[in-house]
Amino acid sequence: MNGEILSELILGKTISESIYTELKERISSLKSKGTTPGLAVVLVGTDPASEVYVRMKGKKCEELGMHSVTITLPENTTQEELLKKVGELNNDKSIHGFLVQLPLPSQIDEKTVINAIDPKKDVDCFHPTNVGKMLIGEPEFLPATPAGVQQMLVRSGVDTKGKHVVVVGRSNIVGKPMAAMMMQKGNGADSTVTVVHSRTKDLPGMTRQADILIVAMGKPNFVTADMVKDGAVVIDVGTNKVDDPASPKGSRLVGDVDFEKVKEKASAISPVPGGVGPMTISMLMANTVAAAERAAR
Question: What number of other Cβ atoms are within 10 A of residue 28's Cβ?
Answer without folding.
Answer: 11
